Structure formats: structure tokens, C-alpha cells
Amino acid sequence: MNSPSRDWQPIDILLVEDNPGDIDLMKEALEGAKVWNRLHVAEDGEQALDFLFQRGQYTEAPRPDLILLDLNLPKRDGREVLEEIRADADLTEIPIVILTTSQADEDVARAYRLHANCYIAKPVSFTQFLRVIQAIEDFWLTVVKLPKKRPA
Predict the structure, then answer these.
(1) Most buried among 24, 48, 63, 70, by the most CB within 10 A?
(2) In a domain, 109, yes or no
(3) CA 137 to the chain's CA centroid
């Protein structure tokens, strides 16, 4: 986390990812981000929905400013999670970046039909993966104007 921005509020990012290696890479990449951020991790689809709907252990969870969503998740897959998020009026304006290994045309088409903001296939190499994370940070955390946080 670097210097505060956006009226001194951190950008809350929800990473929905079950691969521990990818989680660690994302944490490491965002530690040196240009924008003050807090990374929250949900390791399966149920956990992500509990976080977003503030259920169970997540009753105090912040509303994320950005969601990074894998499609191939345990319990509830990312396609279902995306559909449920986009069906809820309180969550629909949160940008969702699909970040997944799937390059299937049907997954890409369905994600956009369900109003994902972008679809990125995870690169295989470590260096390319870090470049993708940097591009996400550069675009979504510094270029794009995100909706203001709603009062709790």
C-alpha cells in the first residue's frame, strides 16, 4: 500500500481466487501499488458471496471497489457468482474483472452477457502474469474513475 488517494480512502479489492500461488502473486504485486489499496481474498464462490452480502464472518466486510474474479472455483463457480452479483441492484455498479485460465469462447461470451467489465486469460509464465497484474493496477486503480464509496 502506497500513499493514500481518492479522498484518503483505500480502494478495496476483492480477489476471488482458489490458487494459493496466484493469491500470493496478487498480494505481492499490489503491495507496491501506486494507489492505496486493501486486498481481501475469498477462496471459493460461497465465500465471495458471503463477503459481498455481508453474511456470516463477513458482517463487517467493506463494499469492494473492484472485484477480480476467477471462473473455476470450488463450491460456487465464478459464472454463478458473476450472475448473482449482477442481479443485485446494490452490487451491480462494482467493476468486475474476470481473471481466469479459461480461454473458452463460451466463457468469454457468457461473462460479457452477464456484464463483466473485462475478461483476461491468465498467462502461464510468471513474468507475463506480473505484467497482467500491473496492467490491471495501472488501468483500474489509476486511470479509471471508480464509483464513490457509499456510506455504511
Answers:
(1) 48
(2) yes
(3) 11
